[in-house]
């Protein structure tokens, strides 16, 4: 799965601009309502933020993040987001300084609030 490939390269801090661009382009052509799991969306946003940091904070994909922001803020995935997904997505958008960061962070914050006392652990809160 593409999100796992992106996550692997970002985790290993492998800089391969052509591969990263090709993966992002592939995802942009496939991303639509319900096409990717919540975990995939979380992995993709984390990977894009991590790869952007390797590239000196040049935004790898403004358009891809905008589509994910819309999905997270308005889509059906909201009911499926776990505390870890919320943490990863909020960190990723803040790190990328994406134009929709405030909207995404507010959305995942609103989603996470009922779960904080029940499900969040210190690691999720610190992220």
Question: Could you write a compact summary of the structure shown?
Answer:
With 127 residues, the chain is an all-alpha fold. It has helices spanning 2-11, 17-30, 38-54, 62-74, 83-96, 101-119, 122-126.
Description:
- The chain is mainly α and 127 residues long.
- The chain is globular.
- It is 72% helix and 0% strand.
- The model has no long low-confidence stretch (mean pLDDT 78).
- The protein contains seven helices and no strands.
- The longest helix has 19 residues, at 101-119.
- Helix 1 runs parallel beside helix 3 (38-54).
Indicate the topology.
Blueprint: H1 2-11, H2 17-30, H3 38-54, H4 62-74, H5 83-96, H6 101-119, H7 122-126
What attributes characterize this protein structure?
single chain, mainly alpha, 127 residues, globular
- The percent of residues in helical segments reads over 70%
Choose one word for the global shape: globular
Give the ordered list of helices and strands. HHHHHHH
Q: Kindly provide the radius of gyration, computed on alpha-carbon positions and rounded to a whole number of angstroms.
A: 14 Å
- Overall number of strands: 0
Strand content of the residues, in percent? Answer: under 5%
**Structural class given helices, strands, pairing?**
mainly alpha
The low-confidence runs, each spanning 5 or more residues with pLDDT under 50, are none
N→C terminal distance: 25 Å
Largest sheet, in brief, is: none
Global mean pLDDT: 78
**DSSP helix count?**
7
